[in-house]
Amino acid sequence: MNEINASLSIHEPVTACSGLGIAHVGAMIGGLIHRGRSLSTVLNNLCKLIDAATQGHSSSVLLFDRTHTRIRHVIGPGLPPAYNALLEGRPVNCDKWPPGAAADDKAEAIVSRLMADTLQEGTLLSLVYGLKSCRCWPIGSLSGESLGILAIYQHETNSAAPFHPALARQLTDIASIAIERTRSHEALKRSEALLAKAQRLSSTGSFCWQVATNEITSSEELHRIFEIDQAVPVTLEQMATRVHPEDVPMVRAMFERARSDGSDLDYKHRLQMPDRSVKYLRVVANAARDQDGQLEYIGAIQDVTQRRLGEQALDKLRSELAHVARVTSLSALTASIAHEVNQPLLGIITNASTCRRALAADPPDLDCARETTRRAIRDCQRASDVISRLRALFAKKSCTTELVDLNEATREVIALLTSELQRRGTTLHLDLADDLPAVKGDRVQLQQVILNLLLNAAEAMNAIDDRPRQLTISTGRDEGECECVRLSVKDAGVGLEPKDVDRLFDAFYTTKSSGMGIGLSVSRSIVECHRGRLWAQANKGPGATFSFSLPQASESTPHGGYLSASRNPALAECAVENS
Amino acid sequence: MTIAVSLISLVDDDQSVRESLPDLLRQFGYTVRAFAAAHAFLESDAVEQTRCLILDVAMPGMSGPDLQQELARRGLRIPIIFITAQSNETLRAKLLAQGAADFLVKPFDDTVFLEALKKALRES
């Protein structure tokens, strides 16, 4: 208030327009707007300035709502609050009431005397409060919108003194500017608040990096993510101190590259906070040129820690589910495993018995003893191989990444499955491509997928009696756009029902009477973790073909580290565990 | 020495069984011929001479029970001792009902095996 009173040097009567010090009013109001005062405060002060300059008068500003049809708010510090309150919410197109007339005509409406016989409450109240006359001027925006009304009431009974039109126009112009500026200022603040809120909700901070000067402009949320005091401007050095030590070389390389070739940035890295906690960030930035042609990056940094933790929990669950699936297929294979082990056991027992008898003979048959002992040892080795294969396939262990030859992996699985397939009367046809490129991944997980597909195929042919139960495994280079290796398992079974195709890979979905329905779902997640895909197709003839394809391992395949692993959650898990 | 002239035939797709069992039987003076598949046995002259057939249950192509049926169809009443690596009570009962002399689950020891063999030969 002091600032207003201090500058008030306007004591001339209202008719003396030149003496109102309109320039001072404008400067005062401009100052308030500039300082970001609210619209109410600004208009309140405008009215006070007018009232102080026009003795015997009280002014008010009637603000319209967004539809320009109702009075939303009345500011009139020199008028009875109850009177102002009464006007709020009223329609502005009232033809008899002066403010309405002003708005409708968009021209000055003058009523020299508020008539007692008017029925409008506003008019009656005008009399009750001793308001004798009122002059109204429309306040319009630059674009011609009706923003509101400036009303100046006179307390004296004399007729409305002539009010210089130029003064009225200047006052409504000031009001108009005040309303528009304050509103746009408020809209800006609202949109800033909205943006800040959106950044907070999405844990995304934004920044602008002037490459030449290393200057960083950043949002509040960026400060929060990096845990840097809001009051302190962010610097690259400061951000660098937060980068996880293991990711420093990668982040440095990214920035060096950006600096040199101006390419867009899109990478993930970790932060290590002062309390040793780790945050996972995703950084995306586009290179642009500022008005001086200097390279600058405008980008966003998202804190994806929660998502990463969720993914890790999901991966853990998935690997446990995969283990359940393995154990399930283990129980399906029990009979076959017994067969695989019992065969060499019989060999061992029989050879040992024969050897004992050969040694007990007179004279001892040493040649026979030697030969049977050799065979017993060989059969022990064979039984032990079966156990090792089983252990490799079914033991619960963390995943490893290595070069895998799918042909070899397939042969190992078949070695375990042969008698199972035989038991089911299935004939197996192998069509493995020569010099198949290796893939990179977890051998046991991939063998699990092959095993699941083979067991499913054999299962699908259980009820088939009118045609050979033929099962074909083929491998080859995929003819797709990527350099991929494909493995297909083709059966001559019951085939795919169209209604099942979409749900085949859902967990716990099964068309079989036995089984939990997790085999295909787990298989798909394993394949996808290896950046491959798994799909099913109906055959032209009877049966179905399940295939998966995986990217070939190449020399340039990145090794370990968060950067490469981040594209592959399952492998990322390994990378983190192994590190 | 009637035993010495008794031909024992073995049909099993597993090589270690085809190697070990005949050697054991030879220790006892039996004459043994081993076949890797049912067809190989059927197509040989051993069919006429065999006094006892040691027969694996699960084999690619013609299985042990299939061979049993085929021999019955041909009117050949050779005592059969089934051997299998998969214990299966239903199958055991079925095969014994179809005339099998015995049903042994691998691995079995030599005395059990020889007892079963002697019994089968006595019955023939």
Secondary structure blueprint with pairings:
The complex is a heterodimer of chains A (579) and B (124).
Chain A: H1 2-7, H2 22-34, H3 39-53, E1 57-64, E2 71-75, H4 81-87, H5 98-105, E3 109-111, H6 121-128, E4 133-140, E5 146-154, H7 165-201, E6 204-210, E7 215-218, H8 220-226, H9 236-242, H10 248-261, E8 265-272, E9 278-289, E10 295-303, H11 305-332, H12 334-360, H13 366-394, E11 402-404, H14 406-423, E12 427-431, E13 439-441, H15 443-460, E14 470-477, E15 484-490, H16 498-501, H17 519-529, E16 533-538, E17 544-551, H18 561-565, H19 569-578
Parallel strand pairs in A: 12-14
Antiparallel strand pairs in A: 1-2, 1-5, 3-4, 4-5, 6-7, 6-10, 8-9, 9-10, 11-13, 14-15, 15-17, 16-17
Helix pairs in contact in A: 2-3, 2-7, 3-7, 11-17, 12-13, 12-14, 14-15, 15-17
Chain B: H1 2-5, E1 7-11, H2 15-27, E2 31-35, H3 38-42, H4 46-49, E3 50-56, H5 64-73, E4 80-84, H6 89-97, E5 102-105, H7 110-123
Parallel strand pairs in B: 1-2, 1-3, 3-4, 4-5
Strand portion of chain A:
15-25%
**Weakly predicted, low-confidence segments of chain A:** 1-19, 103-120, 556-579
Task: Please state how the strands of the largest beta sheet of chain A are arranged side by side.
Answer: 2-1-5-4-3
The figure for the number of domains of chain B is 1
Task: Kindly report the average pLDDT value of chain B.
Answer: 89
Cα shape of chain B: globular
Q: What is the radius of gyration of chain A?
A: 43 Å
| CATH architect. name of the largest domain in chain A | 2-Layer Sandwich
Any idea what the radius of gyration of chain B is? 13 Å
